[in-house]
């Protein structure tokens, strides 16, 4: 299966939806999340990628945001949707906002490969180009009552969630919970700055000062990068080694390709010194995703 054979459509059962509605929905989210909610006022920007951080600047939740009715839908990790509702409710105070886990009302799917990638309504559902990277394809939030019919129309070939993740891994796009740990990862480390997930001009949001300092540092020490081997990579988030020294950890893998959160300065030192990188006994090499602007280089 290749991306050019599509379009393929895959149901992502591990993805859920949180609805934030009401007169103050945009104002509430605008003061909390990493991206600029005002961008959604432009019809040319149908969706955003954003995160809610801890005050220390680490990612607690990441999500795709799209307008719906008098508010917004946040597509996020299904297992964490309830926790996201509780976290947002902490900031609600007297705002005219309703926050609900509506995962049972939607089926989340990914559509990728050749074929149309326009945004908009698709048979009683919401479809939009993935705001992280257009090459990922479209996301579809389908009404659960008619999802089977919707997805039959949207894609000519049904694919597995595993096939979608292999596509995502080939492109070098990380996913929270698979490639980085919630509550222990800064946005720059998870590539939110590279994937349109952070606004550096909107002003305040939770954790903004920490993120701003990292943006203006000479270099970010840890980044998620692409890992490639000549044999299947091990699963289970095993350590990445430079010789015998641990310099990071593998995230999601698909055969001989994977993603890894590593100390890029240590990778540069290993490359310069001819030290082999490995994970679980499998030799590998790493590279910066094609969309990214940072480089693998040693610390100054």
Give an overview in words.
The protein is an alpha+beta fold. It folds into two domains: 3-171, 2-Layer Sandwich (Gyrase A, domain 2), CATH 3.30.1360.120; 219-287, Aminomethyltransferase beta-barrel domains (Elongation Factor Tu (Ef-tu), domain 3, Beta Barrel), CATH 2.40.30.110. It is 18% helix and 33% strand. It has six helices and 17 strands. The chain has helices at 25-30, 81-90, 147-154, 161-171, 208-215, 264-273, and strands spanning 8-11, 15-21, 47-53, 59-68, 71-77, 98-101, 106-112, 120-121, 125-129, 138-143, 157-158, 222-229, 239-242, 245-254, 257-263, 277-279, 282-287. Strand 4 and strand 5 form a beta hairpin. Mean pLDDT is 91; it is low at 117-121.
Instruction: Note the run of SSEs as H and E.
Output: EEHEEEHEEEEEHEHHEEEEHEE
Question: Quick one: how many beta strands?
Answer: 17
Low-confidence blocks of residues: 117-121
Strand adjacency order, main sheet: 8-9-10-7-1-11
CATH H-level superfamily of the largest domain:
Probable tRNA modification gtpase trme, domain 1
Number of individual domains: 2
Strand content: 25-35%
CATH architecture of the largest domain: 2-Layer Sandwich
Largest pleated sheet? 6 strands, mixed
Shape: globular
The computed structural class is alpha+beta
Q: In CATH, what is the class of the largest domain?
A: Alpha Beta
> What's the average pLDDT?
91
Please give the share of residues in helix.
10-25%
C-alpha end-to-end distance: 43 Å
Question: What is the CATH topology classification name of the largest domain?
Answer: Gyrase A, domain 2
Oligomer: single chain
Number of helices: 6
Radius of gyration using CA atoms only: 19 Å
